[in-house]
C-alpha cells in the first residue's frame, strides 16, 4: 500500500516530462491569478484607509463646489481636516463652506475664488500661497478639470475651447501643485492626489475628445514622475483614474443621467477614493471601474479604438440633431 508521498513521487517518475512542465505551469498560473484576485479584493474592500491627519491638519481641494471636488471636501472634513476650497464661483464657495461648517462645526474653512480659464492666474496662485503660509497643509486634491462641450473632430474644436481645457487641466494642476509642494517638502510629509481619467489611461484613445485625453495623460505622467521624485521626502503623489461618475460634467458630455452599478455617484466614488490616498501612485478607486479596466485590458487595442470612435460619432450625431431642433424652434 503506497503512501500519498510515495504515490506522488511515483507519478513524477513515470509521467512524461512535457506533462510535468504543463502541470507546473498550470499550477503557477492558477496561483498567480488567485493572488491577483485576492490582492484586488483586499485593496478594494478590506485595506484600511490611512489617517489623513497624519499628513497635516489642512486639506486643499480645487474645483470644490460641484461633483467629485465637493464630495472630496465633505469627506476630508469628515476625516477631521480643515479646508481650503478653491473654485471660480464665490457664491458656490460660500454655500459649500456654510453647509460643511453646519455639518462639521469644528471644521475651519477658507475659500479662494480662482478661475483657471483666465490667461493670467498668477494672482490666484499668489493668494493660495498667502492663505496657506501659516497652515499645516497635508493634502492637496487637484480635482479641477473641464472637457469639450460637444464631441468634435480635432480640426473642429474652437481655439478658445481647447485653450481653456489646456489652461484648467494642465496649467491649473501644475501651478497649484507648485504652490503647495514647498510646504510639504519643508516638513517631509504630504499627499497630493491628481484626478486623471480613464480616457488617458484605460483606453488607448479617446477620439473626438483628443485634447482632453491628452491633458489627462499629462496629469498621469506628471503624477508618476512626482511620485518618484518626492517619495523619499515623505510625500505621496497619486493619480486617481476614474471612469464615468454621475456628475454634471458627465451628464453634459456622456448623457449620464443617474448613478448605476458601473457609474457611481460622486459621493460613492469619493468614499472609495479617500481610502486609497497614500498607497499606489496610480489607482482606480471604485471597484466597478477597476473591473472595467481589467476587461478592457483583455481586448485588442484596435477593437477599443473602434468602440470609442463609434461612441464619439454617435454623441456628435445626437448633439447635431439637438442643435438643429433648437435652431428650428428659434426660427419659429
Task: Explain the overall architecture.
This protein is α/β, with parallel strands linked by helices and 332 residues long. It has one domain: Rossmann fold. It contains twelve helices and seven strands. Strand 4, helix 6 and strand 5 form a beta-alpha-beta unit. The radius of gyration is 24 Å and the shape is globular.
Task: Give a brief description.
This protein is 57% helix and 11% strand. By secondary structure, it is α/β, with parallel strands linked by helices. It is globular.
- Residue stretches low in confidence (pLDDT < 50, at least 5 long) are none
CATH superfamily: NAD(P)-binding Rossmann-like Domain
**How much is the average pLDDT?**
92
What's the total count of β strands? 7
- The strands making up the biggest β-sheet line up spatially as 3-2-1-4-5-6-7
- Number of H/I helices: 12
Look up the CATH topology.
Rossmann fold
Name a few traits of the molecule.
7-stranded parallel β-sheet, globular, single chain, 57% helix, alpha/beta, Rossmann fold
